[in-house]
Hints:
Largest sheet: 8 strands, antiparallel
Order of helices and strands: HHEEEEHEEEE
Mean pLDDT: 87
Number of helices: 3
Structural class: alpha+beta
Low-confidence stretches: 4-10, 17-21
Helix content: 25-40%
Radius of gyration: 16 Å
Distance between the termini: 27 Å
Number of strands: 8
Oligomer: single chain
Shape: elongated
Amino acid sequence: xxIFTQLLLLxxxxxxxxxxxxxxxxxxxxxxxxxxxxxxxxxxMWELSSDEVYVASFVLSDQPVKSYFDENGKWNKTxxxxxxxxxxxxxxxxxxxxxxxxxxxxxQKVEELDKETIYKLSLKRGGSITEVEFTPGxxxxxxxxxK
Length: 147
């Protein structure tokens, strides 16, 4: 079941990237920056976002990842999809305490230039989804958003 879930997430991850814009090969300086950060054996699918940011979609350690670079090859951000079992235990405990009855439907680790790493979670109960951000120490950031 775990493999099926990962394959489903992976197919949805890449399908969402394919609908935006045709993929292409970014400039050499962007590719070099990507390879220095993730290695040259990682197969990435690239796109150029509407705000001129190069986005690499790839799989790392069996998890879908998106990484963002500017036109100079400067890394800006990386978003890694996680299974709930891969979250820090303190975050899971905070979810159980503060949002009892809601299950984690989506989890993401976000690393951003000049910012602390955060975890973004979608919590679901019935038809209600709440988006919540956490520090690695389990502290809730900002006001949770209902969707």
